[in-house]
UniProtKB/TrEMBL annotation:
<dbReference type="InterPro" id="IPR034704">
    <property type="entry name" value="Ribosomal_bL28/bL31-like_sf"/>
</dbReference>
<dbReference type="InterPro" id="IPR037147">
    <property type="entry name" value="Ribosomal_bL28_sf"/>
</dbReference>
<keyword id="KW-0687">Ribonucleoprotein</keyword>
<dbReference type="InterPro" id="IPR026569">
    <property type="entry name" value="Ribosomal_bL28"/>
</dbReference>
<comment type="similarity">
    <text>Belongs to the bacterial ribosomal protein bL28 family.</text>
</comment>
<dbReference type="Pfam" id="PF00830">
    <property type="entry name" value="Ribosomal_L28"/>
</dbReference>
<protein>
    <recommendedName>
        <fullName>Large ribosomal subunit protein bL28</fullName>
    </recommendedName>
</protein>
<dbReference type="GO" id="GO:0005840">
    <property type="term" value="C:ribosome"/>
</dbReference>
<dbReference type="InterPro" id="IPR001383">
    <property type="entry name" value="Ribosomal_bL28_bact-type"/>
</dbReference>
<keyword id="KW-0689">Ribosomal protein</keyword>
């Protein structure tokens, strides 16, 4: 499964490694993906989400209930 954040949708990006001689080779920039378990009072259960660090900060700022409601509305399986 690809490294993708469930909240922000960020995934791997692609670019080049550039050597001293300026030779380019393909590389991949992976996001910092973490598995995090939250208690969701509105559902009455724990939910495990695959999040980037920016997604974790988003949940801290907006609240888990708001974010989970948006994920359910998008049709994401929790």
């Amino acid at each position: 499964m690809a490294a993708r954040c469930q909240v922000t949708g960020v995934g791997p990006q692609f670019g080049h490694n550039i050597s001293h001689s300026h030779r380019r080779t393909k590389r991949r920039f992976d996001p910092n993906i973490q598995k995090k378990r939250y208690w969701v009072p509105s559902l009455g259960r724990h939910v495990t989400l695959t999040l980037s660090t920016k997604g974790i900060k988003t949940i801290d700022a907006r609240g888990i209930d708001v974010v989970v409601a948006e994920l359910i509305q998008k049709g994401e399986k929790l």
